[in-house]
Every structure is written in C-alpha cells, then in structure tokens.
Amino acid sequence: MIDYIIVGAGLAGCVIAERIANTLDKKVLIIEKRNHIAGNCFDEKDENNILIHKYGPHLFHTNNKEVIDYLSKFTNWDIYNHEVLCFIDGQKVSIPFNFNTISDIFPESKAKLLEKKLLEKYEFNSKIPILELKKSEDEDLSFLAEYIYEKVFVNYTAKQWNMKPEDMDGAVTARVPVFVGSDNRYFNDKYQMLPKYGYTKMINNMLSHKNIKIMLNSDFKEVCSIKEKDFYLFGKKFDGQVIYTGQIDELFDYKFGELPYRSVDMKFETIEKEYYQEKATINYPNNYDFTRITEFKHIHPVNSEKTTILKEYPQEYKIGQNTPYYPIFTEENQENYNKYLEYSKEFKNLVLVGRLAEYKYYDMDDIVKRALDVFGDKIK
Ligand code: UDP
C-alpha cells in the first residue's frame, strides 16, 4: 500500500518523503527519472577521488536556524566560506564587488573617494543591487555603477540568460550585490557550510527508512496516468496525495505552452597538476563562452596530484535534449506559469513544490524551508 507519491528525488521531494515517513508513519513511493537521488545537488567522487557537483557548484548558506537544525539530523558539516574571483581586463578580483575589489582596480585616490561616497550614501556592510546603484545621481557613484554593470553584469547575464539585466527580475542580479565593506565572501549568511560527506550522502540518510521506496530511471507518466482530475498508479485509481516536484508544464502536457528555462552544458576536465586556480570559482563575464570555472578541490580538499575543473556553458533549454536548470523571470513567463498554477488547483490531491514545479529560483535552504512548510500546511 502506498499512501503518498512523490515525483522527483531532489531536495524538495526528499524532505517531504522523510517527514511523511518519520512523523506520519505512512508509506511513500518516490518516482525519479534519473538514475540517482539528490536532484541537482547530486555529488559523487570522480576518477581523481575528488567530490564533484555533477550539476554545477552547490554551496550551502543560510540564515535559517530551523533549516540547519533539520538537516543536521542527517549530516555533520564542514565549515566552508565560498569565495569567487571575477576576471576583468586581465586581472582576477573579488566579487561581490567590494572595497577590496575597488582597491585592486582603481588608483588609490580614486578608490578612497569611491569608498567614501559609498559610505556617505549606504550603511557599512550593506548590499546594494547593481540596478539600484545604477540609479545614483552622484557622479562618482554613477561612474562606479556603470563600470561594475559593464564589466561584471552585462556580458555574464547575456551568456547566462541571453538577456539584459534590466529586462529580468531585479532579484536575479541582486543575488550578487555590490557590498559596502571588505568581506570577500560570496555570501554573507550566518551559516555557511557543506555536508561533510556530500549532499548525496545527506539525502540518502534522509531516505533511509522502511516506509520510503524509490523507483529510479522511471518517468512519472510510465507509472502514473491522469484521467479527468484523478491520478492512477499502475492503472489503479490513487486516492493519496501526489507531491510533484518536476516541470509543471510537462505534467500538464504543455497545454498552455512550454515554460522556458535556461540550461547549462557542464564540461568537466581533469588537469594534470595539483591546483588549477586560486579560488573555488572564477567568473569570466567578458571572455570565453563559459560563464565560470569551478575547481572542486577548493570546496572539498583532498590530496591528489590531479585536479578537476568544471566549465559552465549556458544554453537554451530544449525538451528531451538537456536539463532545465533555471526558470526565466519575465512577466510573460510568470503569467503563463500562473495559468498552470490555476489549472493545478482543480486537482485536489496534487501538491506542487520546488524550483521546477513552482517556477522559482529557490536556493537549497529556501527549498528545505519551503518543503518543511508545505509538509506542515498541505500534507494531509
Ligand atoms: N551575475 C553576473 N556576473 C557575475 C555573477 C553573477 O552578471 O559575475 C548575475 C547573473 O545574471 C547571474 C546572477 O547574477 O545569473 C546570479 O548569480 P549567481 O552566482 O547567484 O548564480 P547561480 O550560482 O545561481 O547560477
């Protein structure tokens, strides 16, 4: 007897599966398309004995103690503060753009002036989205904003999204704000750490329960069908809840059209030396077709004569050909998503959660929080 079906073994689906199994003592079937659990958080040791993030760098950071307390039941942690350099005019400088970046790029007197102007207008340690700084009327701040916009954002965003920063939801570029202070870390959150043995191991621990069954390599529609507004499992009407974490447009056979996503071609390379670059990630806004290079040894240190790097080449998402990574934020896309959302409400047993099902740019901590909330509010 199955009480709940969960579609997708990513973080969202696995948190809900764990909660159902452990606190409701009910039976869960997870249906997963891929041949592994953990969704895009999936990590594994490669042939160089280096723990790599198969779907791009995943750096856990949060201010939410509830999320930390919850995940700590399934993993120990290693403290890890992510730092990123940005390649600008032949120089590698820290981003988010901060006082150190300013000193590295501009002559001393100019740097001092820019810092002074920033501190006159903004609080020390505040984070200013580039699109907000760009509205500055002060001549020097306006110069700084234009510089950062041109050198850091405009070309990276063109590669990553095929759009201009101002044509997208400002929240996307605000993820990497200008930082009014000297902190070089990519994130400022209180908790910055990584599961000691990786995300896959942590998620595997979440799923280790007799009430949880997982079907890998299984497309939802091979196992379940929808007739009228009901779900059928192997041809038999299923009266429990279906927690769906996949693409909402796919679930409903694209009846309101395809929702666009961005994809990324992840190209891993082995380099025959101990280290390849200075920091875990280096962004290349203005050079090459890839956006950034990540070297995983900086994230999970290990003794090895070789090193593994990842170059990320953003691409248009094409159904059946590549992976949908990022929903694309425009008003039009949101309106189309809302049509799906409204339609989904006619399915009384259906619960939607996650980056793909909710068409939202959730971070990992947001997903865990969201899944815990959905479990509390919607799982009956
Ligand atoms: N961004 C940019 N230049 C950079 C870093 C980020 O233009 O050097 C913009 C870009 O639009 C990107 C967004 O900020 O998609 C968010 O960056 P983040 O590093 O958070 O992206 P993620 O790691 O989620 O892909």
Automatic annotation (TrEMBL):
Domain UDP-galactopyranose mutase C-terminal: 151-361
GO cellular component: a single term: cytosol
Keyword Flavoprotein carried by entry: yes
Cofactor(s) needed: FAD
The keyword Signal is annotated on this UniProt entry: no
Sorted UniProt keywords: FAD, Flavoprotein, Isomerase
Database matches in NCBIfam families: UDP-GALP_mutase
Similarity section: Belongs to the UDP-galactopyranose/dTDP-fucopyranose mutase family.
UniProt-listed PANTHER family: UDP-GALACTOPYRANOSE MUTASE (PTHR21197)
Protein's name according to its UniProt entry: UDP-galactopyranose mutase
Natural source organism: Halarcobacter mediterraneus
Taxonomic placement: Bacteria, Pseudomonadati, Campylobacterota, Epsilonproteobacteria, Campylobacterales
